[in-house]
Design goal:
This protein is mainly α. It has one domain. Helices cover 64% and strands 0% of the residues. It contains 3 helices and no strands. The chain starts with 11 loop residues before the first helix and ends with a helix.
Amino acid sequence: MPSGIDPTRPSSSRVYDAILGGKDNYSADRGLRDALAEVTPEPGALAKDNRAFLQRVTRYLAGT
């Protein structure tokens, strides 16, 4: 475990990874993901839309 990482506390980036179905997250992150799913309709769809938007903006700014 790298120093400075607390696997018992959720991290926004790891929760985002968990929502997108990634592998770089811990139990605490998946717990928060599940709690968000109870109050937010389809957090996975929102995260995927956000990622697609960021990709479009990056391509636009890069001029490709």
